[in-house]
Amino acid sequence: MPSKVREGEKRGWIIPIGGAEEKENDPRILQRFVELCGGERSNIVVLPTASRLLDTGPRYEEIFRELGAGEVEAVDYDTRRDCEEKGRLERIAQATGIFFTGGNQLRITTLLGGTSVAKLIRVQNAHGVHVAGTSAGAAILSEHMIAFGEEGGSPRAGSVRLAPGLGLTNRFIIDQHFRQRDRLGRLATALAFNPFALGIGLDEDTAAFIGPDNTLEVEGSGSVTVVDAADLQFSSMDRADEGDAICLLGLHIHMLVRGATFNLHTRKASAGTLNVTKE
Question: Which of 38, 187, 222, 262 makes an SS bond possible with 42, Cβ 3.0 to 4.6 Å?
Answer without folding.
Answer: 38
